[in-house]
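Design request, tokens follow.
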């Protein structure tokens, strides 16, 4: 039983490590995506300011239409990226939950294994104590055992 529990514990620890690594990977991917999205948002805002400055100084209608079209595409990219970030956040929540479950599973198996090991040690100690008592009793009572023929 102990060998089986140790094997199960080994598998559980492997799974825990894998889920922890997945959580770290998703976390770094989410941070990179958020940083990139923030850069694009800042660029869109800066581009809008530049468009307004250019428009107040007098620019052709064609230029303003092209600029507005470009800004709209950038803004659509930001919205799409935010959707992907939301999906990454959801994946992070799921990965975090799996990591916690894996950790709890490992802790539970370790507790069971520790309890089984303690039970085996107690059983072995009790058997040794009984054997020792039998030896002591047999030495104290010399008439026990077989007599020579």
């Amino acid at each position: 039983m102990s060998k089986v529990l140790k094997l199960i514990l080994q598998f559980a620890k492997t799974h825990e490590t894998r889920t922890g690594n997945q959580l770290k990977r998703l976390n770094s991917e989410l941070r990179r995506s958020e940083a990139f999205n923030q850069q694009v948002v800042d660029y869109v805002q800066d581009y809008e300011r530049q468009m307004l400055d250019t428009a107040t100084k007098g620019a052709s209608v064609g230029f303003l239409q092209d600029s507005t079209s470009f800004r709209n595409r950038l803004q659509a990219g930001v919205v799409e990226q935010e959707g992907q970030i939301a999906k990454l956040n959801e994946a992070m929540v799921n990965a975090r939950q799996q990591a916690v479950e894996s950790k709890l599973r490992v802790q539970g198996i370790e507790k069971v294994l520790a309890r089984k090991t303690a039970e085996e040690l107690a059983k072995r100690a009790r058997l040794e104590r009984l054997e020792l008592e039998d030896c002591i009793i047999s030495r104290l009572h010399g008439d026990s055992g077989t007599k020579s023929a």
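Comment from the thread starter after seeing the answer: thanks! The domain at 2-138 is CATH 1.10.287.1700 (Helix Hairpins).
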